[in-house]
Design the sequence.
């Protein structure tokens, strides 16, 4: 199916069954299903609750799947409870250059006191993967988050191009001071779905790299000064030395400042020269050293082909 779609597809020649199933509900039975589903007693319940309740009364109208099928046919398959419906996916964000989409989050660093933490605020540019700003405090606060964004924009003259700031649904992320700071600067906030960490993958991946570094202390930090010293060294390493796999193994600083184009071009020449020296060792093309042009946050996939295309954009 994916290969057919990738090659251009064509008309769908499937015509479905030519006969009517013997067990199909009649029009009167479908109407009875609709009457029960929309009745005052069951209008806020799902078929998984309706059918067992009717069974307890020695009544059988249709199976749960038949209820669902009829309700879907007549446009009634919607959220029926008083609770909020499931949250839809966040808006897909695309960055074609630096300082367009930032992602940020807060992670905990353990202290010697159980239940007491230091809070590390980190803002990353999703296109270059560069840590553009960070701060470490002993509290989690919307005012401190707003101050961090203000400092980042003051230190970065090209921050005026920033369109989106993505985060999860934490209290600091949705705080009034931070939202006011973003509004003042014309930056749109974007939020993950509740309890879905995959909607903020760039910050989560960064924190995993941080906490799985060989130099990350196995014991809690003694004081905030010790934590500041370690995080400062980590950010320096991450931005200037770490060959990031998602941006074709260049450092975030090299990509952020545009040096990655020259680096990747040099790697391509080295591989092409190696292939000319020993063509028998190469069965196909050389390694792809093309720069990553587009970075997507929570892209929308129409099919397998689109997903593959977005992954390699």
Sequence:
């Amino acid at each position: 199916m994916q290969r057919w779609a990738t090659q251009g597809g064509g008309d769908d020649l499937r015509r479905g069954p030519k006969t009517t199933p013997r067990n199909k509900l009649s029009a009167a039975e479908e109407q009875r299903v609709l009457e029960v589903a929309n009745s005052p007693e069951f209008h806020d319940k799902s078929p998984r609750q309706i059918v067992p309740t009717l069974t307890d009364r020695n009544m059988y109208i249709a199976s749960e799947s038949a209820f669902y099928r009829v309700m879907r046919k007549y446009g009634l398959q919607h959220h029926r409870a008083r609770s909020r419906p499931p949250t839809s996916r966040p808006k897909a964000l695309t960055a074609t250059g630096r300082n367009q989409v930032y992602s940020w989050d807060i992670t905990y660093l353990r202290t010697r006191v159980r239940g007491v933490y230091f809070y590390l605020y980190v803002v990353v540019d999703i296109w270059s993967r560069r840590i553009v700003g960070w701060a470490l405090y002993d509290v989690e606060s919307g005012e401190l988050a707003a101050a961090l964004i203000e400092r980042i924009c003051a230190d970065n003259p090209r921050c005026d191009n920033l369109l989106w700031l993505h985060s999860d649904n934490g209290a600091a992320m949705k705080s009034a001071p931070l939202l006011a700071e973003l509004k003042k600067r014309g930056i749109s906030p974007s939020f993950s779905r509740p309890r879905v960490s995959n909607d903020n993958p760039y910050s989560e991946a960064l924190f995993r790299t941080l906490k799985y570094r060989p130099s990350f202390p196995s014991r809690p930090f003694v004081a905030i000064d010790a934590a500041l010293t370690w995080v400062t060294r980590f950010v320096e390493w991450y931005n200037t030395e770490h060959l990031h796999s998602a941006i074709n193994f260049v450092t975030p600083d090299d990509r952020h400042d545009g040096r990655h184009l020259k680096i990747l071009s040099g790697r391509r020449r080295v591989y092409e020269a190696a292939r000319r020296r020993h063509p028998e060792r190469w069965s196909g093309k050389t390694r792809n050293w093309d720069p990553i042009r587009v970075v997507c946050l929570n892209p929308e996939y129409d099919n397998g082909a689109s997903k593959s295309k977005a992954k390699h954009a």
Q: What stands out?
A: The two ends are 22 Å apart (CA to CA).
